[in-house]
Design brief:
The chain is of the alpha+beta class and about 240 residues long. The protein contains five helices and twelve strands. It has one domain: SOS response associated peptidase-like (hypothetical protein yedk fold, Alpha-Beta Complex). It is globular and about 50 Å long.
């Protein structure tokens, strides 16, 4: 899964990376500890099929939510969608068919399980080895509150982890390569089988690297570039 991530890039640089001139009215601050329900950038196609950068909150609001309390509850439980079932789950299937997006990140955090060389719950940071932004495959939804306010929300799609990442946790985000962005964002592509095929990658961990970081990231009160600085990990708790 992906429960925290970081984005420390100027909006203009993000726009250049994703080849778009359509920007949101406000700019989000650099953040090295983005948490669920927080505002994030998403990249999507407009009705004219031109790309835009917009803002949504992280965690999918179920379309059938009847109150703000219901919306917030559903959102906290839907920050990730599994690639294996995103096309079937009621919360996600309409968005997967009609409202796919990319979610830019400088990197993301994962907490080690008993699978590998790190002690359990050791936080690690994963980023690209070429310092470019990661492009999470995402979906977004629009929900209208009882008072008429339109709220947009998004979820990150995950898959089975591979390679070194699988030694930390059994899930990882689907990182969409640049050559597939146009197809993924294509609003004319509504066939679930074709959309799912775009997530089938030969090397899903291509260009990704990881290193252990401080457990200061565990607290949402902490922020700053120091959170992603390498830290000597404790010994593994694995017996064999």
């Amino acid at each position: 899964m992906c429960g925290r991530f970081a984005l420390s890039a100027m909006l203009t640089d993000i726009a250049e990376e994703f080849s778009t001139q359509a920007l949101p009215e406000k700019t989000l601050p650099f953040d090295w500890n983005i948490k669920p329900t927080q505002e994030i950038y998403i990249v999507r196609n407009q009705s004219n099929r031109e790309r835009e950068i917009s803002i949504a909150s992280w965690g999918m609001i179920a379309p059938w939510s009847k109150s703000l309390i219901e919306a917030q509850r559903s959102q906290s439980m839907a920050i990730n969608a599994r690639s294996e079932s995103v096309h079937e789950k009621p919360t996600f299937r309409s968005a997967f068919k009609n409202r796919r997006c990319l979610i830019p990140a400088s990197g993301y955090y994962e907490w080690a399980t008993e699978l590998g060389d790190y002690k359990t719950k050791q936080p690690v940071f994963i980023s690209r080895d070429d310092q470019k932004l990661i492009s999470f495959a995402g979906i977004y939804e629009r929900w209208i509150s009882p008072d008429g306010e339109i709220r947009e929300s998004a979820a990150i799609i995950t898959r089975d982890a591979v390679g070194e990442l699988a030694k930390v946790h059994n899930r990882m985000p689907v990182c969409m390569p640049k050559e597939r962005w146009s197809d993924w964002l294509d609003i004319q592509l509504t066939d679930a089988h074709e959309a799912r095929a775009l997530m089938e990658l030969k090397d899903p961990d291509a260009h990704l690297r990881l290193w252990p970081v401080s457990n200061r990231v565990n607290s949402i009160r902490n922020n700053g570039a120091e959170l992603i600085e390498p830290e000597e990990p404790g010994p593994s708790e694995t017996l064999f």
